[in-house]
Amino acid sequence: MNTVWKHCKGWLFRLFPHHLVSRVTFWATHLGTPLKNPAIRMFIRAFDVDMQEARHAHPEDYASFDDFFTRQLIPGARPIAPGADVIVSPADGRISQISDYASHRAIQAKGRWFSMRDLLGGTCNYGRLCERGKFATIYLSPRNYH
Fold first, then answer.
1. H-helix or E-strand containing 135?
2. How do the domains of the chain map onto residue ranges?
3. 135 DSSP β-pair partners
4. Which phi and psi (to 5°) does residue 131 adopt?
5. Nearest Cα to 140, choosing from 33, 18, 58, 27?
6. Which end of the chain has fewer CB atoms within 10 angstroms, the N or the C?
7. Apex 50 CA angle, 5 and 38, nearest 5
8. Per-residue pLDDT for 146 more than 70?
9. Which pairs with CB-CB distance under 8 Å and at least 24 residues apart come from 100-109?
10. For residue 16, how many C-alpha atoms fall within 13 Å in the half-sphere facing its CB?
11. Are strands 107-109 and 94-102 parallel, antiparallel or unpaired?
12. With a threshold of 0.70, does the pTM exceed it?
């Protein structure tokens, strides 16, 4: 039964309008309404957000939900391992894809395909890296620090 649910969940996730949800969420999170504090508290509880590592631990300290969502961490919360052979992630999260890309259809994110040029704002000054290479997608769950 668990396998069936995982399959159904994956299928439903593919049907979800990710781009639309992202746009609506962007608009809503920039509002500084009286509902901001209860919304932040609910989010913290629902996704088990660790506020002990945040510079500001209370919802009242944030101007908007977006301010909370992009909160600063206390110094030392994310130490970076030293060394020239270390790969560092730019954010918390889990690797959801690792693959090769080619110039036109390269990288899938939220159900849409992007070329390296698209992701770099229309220009790519990295020579052959613009045409072929490897990529990793890091999935940020709501619980992850953004």
1. strand 132-139
2. 2-69, 94-139
3. 99
4. -100, -40
5. 18
6. N
7. 85
8. no
9. 100/132, 100/133, 100/134, 100/135, 101/132, 101/133, 101/134, 101/135, 102/131, 102/132, 103/130, 103/131, 103/132, 106/135, 107/135, 107/137, 108/137, 109/137
10. 12
11. unpaired
12. no
